[in-house]
Amino acid sequence: MDLFSAFLVLTILIFSAILHEIMHGFVAEKLGDPTARLAGRLTLNPLKHIDPFMSVLLPLLLIISGSPVVFGAAKPVPVDPFNLKEGRKDMALVSLAGPLTNIFIAIIASLLIKIIILLSGGFLESGSIVPIIYWILAKIVQLNLLLAIFNLIPIPPLDGSKVFALILPEKEARAYLSLGSIGIFIIFFLLLSPIGGFSLGEVIFNLLSFAEKLLGV
Fold first, then answer.
1. If we measure between CA atoms, which residue out of 149, 127, 145 comes closest to residue 137?
2. Known catalytic residue: 170?
3. What torsion, rounded to 10 degrees, do the Cα atoms 92, 95, 100, 103 define?
4. How much is the average pLDDT of 51-66?
5. Residue 215 and residue 207: Cα distance in Å, rounded?
6. Which of 28, 105, 144, 206 allows an S-S link to 33, with CB 3.0 to 4.6 Å?
């Protein structure tokens, strides 16, 4: 991947992650917690959201290395669960808001791809700007689906863990969510060290391919 393409991929990923986090804060406020707004995080200003490692360095390393799975994250928006009206249930809704936002973005981008193909008669002429727009939209679909799938993994502190915690008794849910402090290490271990034929990276890649086929991309 050339430098310009890598820059575009990184830019798409950063703003997709930012929208993911903004929606966490937006839904939290609707459910009674204004913490994200008071912290100035309900803004598209990337300086408020970028994490040097998770937003830039990690995805850049994955892009440069040619990894089939590229992901990253913005700084998590602050959410105070004690302000939420219905505790764990509302926390699950706040958590779902991020991945659902990425899925919505992917659907919109896939629809735009279909419109482009329809208007071009099924042919993407070389030498025109159309193939570039198609490529950008396809990357928006791919990266947003990837963000959604990755964040729905039920390993704390990812969003999927808050949803999974709903089916656990309160005591067990607290113990399970407390793994958030080491969860990122568990995730990287599963990504880098397949166990018994299980590879988290392969599962994510297969789910991504399935989701792309569903959207016709």
1. 145
2. no
3. -130
4. 86
5. 12
6. 28
